[in-house]
Design a protein that fits this description.
Elements (H helix, E strand, L loop, with lengths): L1 H28 L1
């Protein structure tokens, strides 16, 4: 269970980083 919770948290962190990178790219384009 602990491993599942950790992987879920890391996945959320990864998604957040990708989202921030996408927003920066959009701001750079526009």
């Amino acid at each position: 269970m602990l491993l599942l919770s950790y992987s879920r948290k890391s996945l959320f962190l990864l998604f957040f980083c990708v989202f921030r990178y996408a927003m920066q790219s959009l701001l750079l384009v526009f």
